Amino acid sequence: MLKKENRLKAKSAFRATYNNKNTVSDEILILYAGKLKLDKNCPTRVGFVVSKKIHKRATKRNRIKRLMRENIRLIFKQEESNIINNYQSLIFSAKEEILNKNIKEIEKSILILLNKIANKYI
User: What domains are there in the chain, each with its CATH number?
Assistant: First the structure.
């Protein structure tokens, strides 16, 4: 489970991240990045969005969010967290193609998007 300090939950925080307009995407995910951190001590907050357009059933949508959340938790533990720690907030939004993917393919997509956003804005 993702630590409480790393969860993005407030509606205003989601809106602020979307309004920042730092976006990259691939075939299964879209990544919205918030502002760059000024204070490196505050934690990066991560949110996950899977709309009803992806799948009608909440169980499928929740499973996708759990897979993404687990991958982010593992990335925070590894060295790739340096890329994540540059931003105040991140939102991962799923596309319909994610339904056919497994955890390894989702992990690969997340890492690709994190590298893209790091190369684009830093």
Answer: 4-121 (3.30.230.10)
| Residue 112, both tokens | 């690709």
* Mean pLDDT, residues 55-83: 88
Q: How far apart are CA 100 and CA 81, in angstroms?
A: 27
For residue 122, name the pLDDT band (cuts at 50, 70, 90). low
Distances (CA, A) of 12 to 15, 19, 61, 89, 91: 5, 10, 22, 12, 13
What tokens appear for 44 in the block? 């990066």
CA distance 18 to 33: 8
Task: Classify 66 as helix, strand or coil.
Answer: helix
Beta carbons of 85 and 44 less than 8 angstroms apart: yes
